[in-house]
Amino acid sequence: MLLSEVFTKDLIKVNLEAEDKDEAFEELVEFFCTVRNSNAREEILKSLREREKLMSTGIKPGVAIPHGKILLLDDIRGICGVSKKGIEYEALDGRPVHLIFMLLVPDETDKHLKALKNLAELLLNPQFYTDMCSQRDVEGVYTTLKEYEDHFIEMM
Hints:
The chain is an alpha/beta fold and 156 residues long. It has helices at residues 3-6, 21-35, 41-54, 111-123, 126-133, 138-155; strands at residues 12-13, 63-64, 67-69, 77-87, 97-105.
């Protein structure tokens, strides 16, 4: 599973305006529903919030990977958000989040586990986070993701 196929250019949002986790969920889900002409807004928000109750998905310094199972989807979808100012996310380290990789998956699939594993691999390289956060536009974010992913695949 290629992350560049999950986090497509049309689902990357730079300069998030959200100041906290709930606002970030609202902003990214609204973005997704508008781009994909989806009426699953409430289902997505409910799923993300229920998962978040178990434990914060702000799992690495500056990075959150919220995810939820969505019955109305036919395949995994990813929304990437970048915040320059940082989002109060209730992350495990207590620090703001600047990079959000939101995963939405159909109910009967484990594809998100492969996507989570691939993201974790890229995030082992601290330069990936730095380079992603420094991008100013959608093209830069997507190109950076693709370059790191291609490099990782070559190393395997």
